[in-house]
Amino acid sequence: MAEKKIMLGNEAIARGAYEAGVKVSAAYPGTPSTEISENIVKYKEIYAEWSPNEKVAMEVAIGASISGVRAMASMKHVGVNVASDPLYTISYGGVNGGLVLVAADDPGLYSSQNEQDTRCVARAAIVPVLEPSDSQEAKDFTKFAFDMSEKYDTPVIVRTTTRLSHSQGLVTLEERAEVEDKVYERNAAKYVMMPGNAKGRHVYVEQRMKALAEDGCGFPVNRAEYQDTSMGFITSGIPYQYVKEVFPNASVLKLGMVHPLPKKLIQEFASRVDKLYIVEELEPVIEEQVKSWGIQAVGKEIFTIQGEYSANLLRKAVLGENPEVNAPVPVPARPPILCPGCPHRSVFSVLKKLHIHAAGDIGCYTLGAVAPLSVVDTTVCMGASISTLHGMEKAKGRDYIKNWVAVIGDSTFMHTGVNGLINMVYNQSSGTVMILDNSTTGMTGHQDHAATGKTLMGEVVPAINIYELCRAIGVKHVTEVNAFDLPELERVVKEETARDEVSVIITKSPCVLLKGNVFPYKCRPDSEKCKKCGACLRVGCPALTKNADGTISIDETMCNGCGLCMSLCKFDAISKVEA
Questions:
Q1: 50 vs 455: CA distance, rounded Å
Q2: CB 246: neighbour CB atoms within 10 A?
């Protein structure tokens, strides 16, 4: 009897890659995709790595595919932007061994800066897309994607969303397929995308997509479920689950391949139902194509383009019900906040004291934008902080950025920040870059990177020295400082921001949540010495609370003994004690 196991969607994707015979996996951590690689590394038959960024991950997978093995790259939706350069071109070149890109979209913006829809990217890149709706399909579709990739000579995108990535379902496990490596044969016309070759490959790509649209009508991932034909739904992915919950007796066309669309299958389904609804999260990708074929359907007229869908949303939109009437009292909002003992809080406290603005980046330190710190003024994308600061100076002059810095984490600096710093040196900028080095990729759950000295597979390797890297780029003034040494940090910030040439400050203190961290001390207040000034509270450490009489309390279960509150108190009303 086949073994069954409850799995996260991401875990099931990893299992699908294993069963499909994948030999190489490359990724950059990004919620909601991170757990794919963290599970795939458990299979010793697969080489798995954290790449410096998604572009590199995609290129690693492409190289493995060209050499003749099955390969996969995994990333979140905004990571697809970083990987789009090689993706768009390998669409023309095609594959040798099967090549799959797993792209995890984030409807509802749980951990992202936008809600972009990867299906739109796939249409522009001319790459087919599969979209599973539960953990079992996540595994099965991943396997099907590799077969499809090799049969149609194309990279294939498996699109997931946060709800699928982080939901659990029962999965039937199967044995790993022993897929023989494809023979590599030199073929410049296929793999060297200079203009003359690319013109011919573009013709091939269009023919390939027509074949997929035709054959897709018979793919097992696309199925029509006919019941009551007075109402029909075309849907895919997680929204399929909501449709089945609210309309269990309706006819449903469940699309597993959402690009290209199986036109004849859709036309047949539409002809057999009285009223047709198209239910898809984010952009009207399916709807626009279906309506362009002259098929009458109801879509975004009643369904939102924004955020996640739900069963209640469908009840309200289609049936006119108002589920909110008897809804439970909403839970109070809990805005994100830096952890107790986070070194970023210390850095931002100094910047706030000095009235310095920060061009921010993607990571935990983005939370420096919210009260009470309110230091970070901009956040665009990975690595943008440094280039944003440079652009400000070139637009407004050196004096304009005297009270500005760029802040970026160590992992994000290795991802794309280093390119911005090279640009600052090359184009003679004079801004100050602060690299907040907490020795991990913090926000996505503490993954290693090129500067930590450890790979995804657990190998100890030489760590990139960020200090030496900055010096090698040509930055003359590079300073390392303990993030919790407030007097020294303040002195260094004043000194470096006053320079008329580019400088780098590396604040070094590990993330408090890193495994193995031991905190020998706790901070304890003395109510008799407390002057009730509130200085310790201004940095927003969640371990501190204000009592009714104006004194403070420190929750020892939360306190990590970093000493920031103690440093801020001028009256010695807080001391360190052994934990």
A1: 7
A2: 20
Q: Give the start-end residues of each E strand in 295-378.
A: 357-359, 376-378
Longest C-alpha distance within the chain, in Å?
A: 82
Which two three-digit tokens encode residue 555? 């929750």
Residue partners of 373: CB distance under 8 A and separation at least 6 = 338, 345, 348, 349, 352, 367, 539, 540
Q: What are the beta bridge partners of residue 146?
A: none
Residue 563's pLDDT band (cuts 50, 70, 90):
very high
> What torsion, rounded to 10 degrees, do the Cα atoms 441, 443, 447, 452 define?
20
Amino acid at 138: A
520 close to 561: Cβ distance less than 8 angstroms: yes
Contacts of 199 (CB under 8 A, 6+ apart): none
Cβ proximity of 473 and 425 under 8 Å = yes
Averaged pLDDT of the chain: 95
Cis amide leading into 330 (omega within 30):
no
- CA dist 115 → 105, 118, 313 (Å): 7, 9, 18
- Given this model, what pLDDT does residue 326 score? 65
> 133 pLDDT exceeds 80?
yes
Q: Is 332 left (phi over 0), alpha (psi -120 to 50) or beta?
A: beta
Among residues 349, 409, 351, the alpha carbon closest in space to that of 384 is found at 409
Cα 39 to chain centroid, rounded: 16
Residues 382, 82 contacting (CB under 8 angstroms): yes
Do the bridges between strand 47-50 and strand 574-578 make them parallel or antiparallel, or are there none, so unpaired? unpaired
Distance CA 73, CA 24 (A): 9
- Alpha-carbon distance of 159 to 439, in angstroms, equals 31
313/340 Cα distance (integer angstroms) = 37
Q: Which residue has the tokens 């494809």?
A: 182
Percentage of the chain lying above the pLDDT 70 cut = 99
Q: What distance in Å separates the CA atoms of residue 16 and residue 174, rounded to the nearest whole number?
A: 9
- For residues 100-126, give the mean pLDDT: 95
Candidate ranges 52-66, 326-340, 565-579; pick with highest mean pLDDT = 52-66
Q: What is the rounded CA–CA span in Å between residue 436 and residue 394?
A: 24
- Which strands form 228-235's sheet, in the order they lie side by side? 223-225, 250-254, 228-235, 275-279
Confidence band for 515, pLDDT divided at 50, 70 and 90: confident
**What are the tokens at 80?**
């697809």
Rounded Cα distance between 535 and 566, Å, is 10
For the residues of 156-220, what is the DSSP string, one character each? EEEEEEHHHHT-EEEEE--PPP-PPPPPP---HHHH---HHHHHHHHHHHHHHHHHHHHHGGG-T
Buried-state track 185-199, b at ≥16 Cβ within 10 A, e below 16: eeeeebbebeeebee
Task: Compute the distance between CA of residue 47 and CA of residue 457 in angstroms, rounded to an integer.
Answer: 8
